[in-house]
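Duplicate of #3305? Posting structure anyway:
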């Protein structure tokens, strides 16, 4: 017989004794079980053997292959145990551990949460609205006429998607005021809500402008709401957010969706007085109520809106709006 399986078995055992690491183990496997190894060679020779030798060679090669597989499993386990023991011996448990840095809310998220919590303590409910809006909610229902500059493509991001209910395209909301319309269409007074969210305008990015920023809209509707209620509400809010050491003034202004309207300025007491504009406000225009289906003359309301970035910049002395979006940990970790 061509194959001496006793000698082959002795050779396998001798080679197995020289396996000390993973490289030797792989070389052993390839020598005997690889495509060009001994075992495939013996199997391929079975077709050329006389019929009387095939059973003997077949049994011999199967036994030899079984022994080789046993050696591979045994040596693989031994090598793994040795590697684990080596790692344990090299582990110095006295070295201080490396802890993961714990993150925190972004400064803009902190500001939104703080502003909303002040109004929640005064009985307001926080609501959110979609960032994709219709022209009706974003402009028409807010008494913004068709020829108003803000409806131009240079001031609003229009989408190449038609509104199923209107002939005009959908758009990215340019302010959070459409949230007022949605709330009043779905709920009857009395109601008091604040609506935070992202807004979009095609502005050139610089230290004080961005094509995306955050606003918070406020709305209160009930019977016999007065401008004095609006003034007292915002004075309390500003003192809570900026501290008691501020002065405030309300300047007459114009917004299509409020009448009368005002801009709110603040200044810190002491030193050289400098007024800073922080928000717009006013009494809800009756035409807005009409668009929402409220009975004429039955309700009055107040509304206000503020930029979150501006509030954060004033509170923390930040002079560039781009810092909020650059993801620089040196900046973000300060808050």
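Output from current build:
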């Amino acid at each position: 017989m061509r194959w001496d399986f006793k000698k082959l078995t002795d050779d396998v055992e001798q080679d197995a004794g020289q396996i000390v690491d993973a490289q030797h183990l792989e070389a052993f496997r390839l020598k005997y079980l690889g495509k060009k190894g001994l075992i495939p060679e013996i199997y391929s020779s079975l077709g050329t053997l006389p019929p009387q030798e095939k059973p003997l060679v077949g049994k011999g090669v199967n036994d030899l292959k079984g022994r080789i597989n046993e050696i591979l499993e045994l040596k693989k386990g031994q090598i793994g145990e040795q590697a684990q023991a080596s790692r344990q011996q090299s582990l110095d448990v006295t070295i201080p551990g490396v802890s993961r840095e714990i993150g925190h809310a972004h400064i803009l998220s902190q500001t939104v949460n703080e502003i909303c919590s002040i109004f929640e303590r005064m009985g307001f409910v926080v609501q959110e609205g979609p960032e994709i809006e219709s022209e009706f909610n974003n402009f028409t229902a807010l008494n913004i006429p068709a020829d108003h500059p803000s409806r131009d493509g240079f001031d609003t991001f229009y989408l190449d998607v038609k509104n199923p209910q209107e002939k005009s395209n959908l758009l990215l909301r340019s302010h959070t005021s459409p949230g007022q319309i949605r709330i009043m269409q779905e709920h009857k007074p009395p109601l008091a809500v604040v609506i935070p969210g992202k807004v979009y305008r095609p502005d050139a990015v610089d230290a004080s402008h961005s094509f995306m920023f955050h606003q918070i809209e406020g709305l209160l509707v009930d019977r016999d709401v007065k401008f004095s209620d609006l003034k007292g509400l915002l004075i309390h809010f500003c003192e809570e957010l900026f501290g008691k050491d501020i002065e405030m003034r309300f300047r007459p202004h114009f917004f299509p969706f409020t009448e009368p309207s005002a801009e709110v300025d603040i200044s810190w007491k002491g030193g050289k007085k400098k007024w800073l504009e922080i928000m717009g406000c006013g009494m809800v225009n009756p035409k807005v109520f009409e668009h929402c289906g409220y009975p004429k003359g039955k309700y009055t309301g107040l509304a206000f809106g503020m930029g979150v970035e501006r509030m954060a910049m004033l509170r923390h002395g930040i002079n560039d709006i781009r810092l909020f979006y650059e993801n620089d940990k040196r900046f973000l970790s300060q808050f």
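Confirmed duplicate; merging threads. Residues 107-332 form a domain with the BirA Bifunctional Protein; domain 2 fold (CATH 3.30.930.10). The two ends are 84 Å apart (CA to CA).
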